[in-house]
């Protein structure tokens, strides 16, 4: 009987290779990270151990007696990054920066390390992908040369820890965590076990010695951070570095931030001399022309809590194909198809079934929110009729399938930003609140009313031959 009981208690154990969650039986989906097909058998389950109380590292104290100076953020010297971090880097904080290859992660972090060194601190930049000479060439190009910035090219965890002991830095930059491996753990560099061990060792050192640590993380094809999901749970801050290689604009977003908000975004201009902060990036998304042209409309998008003006351009041309083309750049293609259907069915002013329609944004910005629907619709109508809209007009509103316009969030911040940049006319949905001074707001309840309001503002009319085709 005892033997049977022992055999039943030693059931095979299964563990998720992504997050380390364990179970006594196989399941298709991990109960912790919800990933499919990641639970594998690892051997026999050990009986649960009973942990007895032990000595504490330091006694618990009343919350009002805890010193908060250690948690104060120190500015990095780069304003847009400080905006996202919530004021700067906290002593002992661990930041994970992820982004596609070539987007500028290494350049940004090299500038951060140089700014900390110039401020009197000591920075250690460890590269696992490039040699120290290659990093120095980049430092010379972006003006990051300073004697208090130390460089090292290592891929072994013990060597990295040795450099930390020798340099005793205030800021550690590891580029990247997937290239460093520990000889004490099985597996190749970048594997689940290695990444977990390397991250845990660096986080432990950062917390014990109060070293602000920034780790670079690779991303997968779908844009998520490579490696185990537990890596995102271990660190204090997770930043995503975004940008199109064909555009100079780069954006940093906070996905997780224990020291500040997660609804801020930092904007940078990726120039030849490195990354330059853009406190007012709206100029990258607008085209300055001496005379207005057809097919162009300006909207205001919200990136986190930050309003940015963006220009939407559309081109409508007769198609030589049996199935007309619908092409987008910076816009959602399915959203464009919906707007075209609403224009034809609800507005009853345009017939675009035999025309090619191209829609794009200026400057490489991506418009993800539905607040830009009205601007897209007006740009298409302006191009189809070959009549320009007023150059000082902004359009805000979500277009519904019934042709109605729905309110959008942050309408006051959007209009205030438009007024600051000199825009005087605005088309908005009903019940949008009190407009700021300097902007004449026209509330329109449907896409048809918006088009008629545009007729009065910019003389946008339907061409006669299109009305004949509609009949």
Automatic annotation (TrEMBL):
What are the boundaries of the region Lon-protease-like? 356-471
Q: Where is this motif: RadA KNRFG motif?
A: 256-260
Q: Name one GO biological process term.
A: recombinational repair
SMART domains cross-referenced by the UniProt entry: AAA
**Keywords for the protein's UniProt record, in alphabetical order:** ATP-binding, DNA damage, DNA repair, DNA-binding, Hydrolase, Metal-binding, Nucleotide-binding, Stress response, Zinc, Zinc-finger
Q: Which residues form the signal peptide?
A: none
Q: Which InterPro entries match?
A: AAA+_ATPase, DNA_repair_RadA, P-loop_NTPase, RecA_ATP-bd, Ribosomal_Su5_D2-typ_SF, Ribsml_uS5_D2-typ_fold_subgr, Rubredoxin_2
Tell me which CDD domains the record gives.
RadA_SMS_N (cd01121)
- A GO-annotated cellular component: cytosol
Residue positions annotated to bind ATP are 99-106
In terms of PROSITE patterns, this protein maps to:
RECA_2 (PS50162)
Q: Which GO terms describe its molecular function?
A: ATP binding; ATP-dependent DNA damage sensor activity; damaged DNA binding; hydrolase activity; zinc ion binding
Can you give the residue ranges of the RecA family profile domain?
70-219
Task: Cite the PANTHER family for this sequence.
Answer: DNA REPAIR PROTEIN RADA (PTHR32472), DNA REPAIR PROTEIN RADA-LIKE PROTEIN (PTHR32472:SF10)
Q: What is recorded about the protein's domains?
A: The middle region has homology to RecA with ATPase motifs including the RadA KNRFG motif, while the C-terminus is homologous to Lon protease.
Family, per the entry? Belongs to the RecA family. RadA subfamily.
- What is the role of the protein in this entry? Plays a role in repairing double-strand DNA breaks, probably involving stabilizing or processing branched DNA or blocked replication forks. DNA-dependent ATPase involved in processing of recombination intermediates, plays a role in repairing DNA breaks. Stimulates the branch migration of RecA-mediated strand transfer reactions, allowing the 3' invading strand to extend heteroduplex DNA faster. Binds ssDNA in the presence of ADP but not other nucleotides, has ATPase activity that is stimulated by ssDNA and various branched DNA structures, but inhibited by SSB. Does not have RecA's homology-searching function.
Q: What is this protein called?
A: DNA repair protein RadA
Q: Which organism is it from?
A: Thermasporomyces composti
């Amino acid at each position: 009987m005892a033997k049977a009981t022992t055999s039943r208690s030693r059931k095979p154990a299964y563990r998720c290779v992504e997050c380390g969650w364990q179970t006594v039986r196989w399941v298709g989906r991990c109960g912790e990270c919800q990933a499919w097909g990641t639970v594998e058998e690892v051997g026999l389950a050990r009986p649960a151990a009973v942990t007895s109380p032990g000595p504490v590292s330091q006694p618990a104290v009343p919350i009002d007696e805890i010193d908060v100076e250690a948690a104060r953020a120190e500015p990095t010297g780069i304003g847009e990054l400080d905006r996202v971090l919530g004021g700067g880097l906290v002593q002992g904080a661990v930041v994970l920066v992820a982004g596609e290859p070539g987007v500028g992660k290494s350049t940004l972090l090299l500038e951060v390390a140089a700014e900390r060194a110039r401020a009197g601190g000591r920075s250690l930049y460890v590269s696992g992908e490039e040699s120290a000479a290659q990093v120095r060439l980049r430092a010379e190009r972006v003006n990051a040369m300073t004697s208090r910035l130390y460089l090292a090219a290592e891929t072994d965890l013990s060597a990295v820890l040795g450099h930390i002991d020798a340099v005793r830095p205030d800021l550690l930059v590891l580029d990247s965590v997937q290239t460093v491996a520990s000889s004490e753990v099985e597996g190749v560099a970048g594997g689940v076990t290695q990444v977990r061990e390397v991250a845990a060792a660096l986080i432990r050192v950062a917390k014990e010695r109060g070293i602000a640590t920034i780790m670079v993380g690779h991303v997968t094809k779908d844009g998520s951070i490579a490696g185990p999901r537990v890596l995102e749970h271990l660190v204090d801050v997770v930043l995503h570095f975004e940008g199109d290689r064909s555009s100079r604009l780069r954006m940093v977003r906070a996905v997780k931030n224990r020291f500040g908000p997660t609804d801020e975004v930092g904007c940078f201009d990726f120039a030849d001399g490195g990354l330059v902060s853009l406190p007012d990036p709206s100029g990258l998304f607008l085209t300055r022309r001496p005379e207005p042209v057809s097919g162009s409309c300006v909207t205001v998008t919200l990136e986190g809590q930050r309003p940015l003006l963006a220009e939407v351009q559309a081109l409508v041309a007769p198609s030589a194909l049996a199935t007309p083309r619908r092409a987008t750049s910076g816009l959602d293609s399915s959203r464009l198809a919906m707007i075209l259907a609403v224009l034809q069915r609800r507005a009853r002013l345009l017939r675009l079934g035999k025309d090619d329609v191209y829609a794009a944004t200026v400057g490489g910005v991506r418009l993800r929110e539905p607040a830009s629907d009205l601007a897209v619709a007006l740009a298409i109508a302006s191009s189809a009729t070959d009549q320009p809209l007023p150059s000082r007009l902004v359009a805000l509103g979500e277009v519904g399938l019934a042709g109605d316009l729905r309110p959008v969030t942050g309408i006051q911040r959007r209009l205030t930003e438009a007024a600051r940049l000199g825009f005087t006319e605005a088309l908005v949905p009903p019940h949008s609140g009190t407009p700021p001074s300097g902007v004449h707001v026209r509330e329109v309840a449907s896409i048809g009313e918006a088009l008629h309001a545009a007729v009065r503002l910019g003389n946008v009319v339907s061409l006669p031959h299109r009305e004949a085709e509609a009949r």
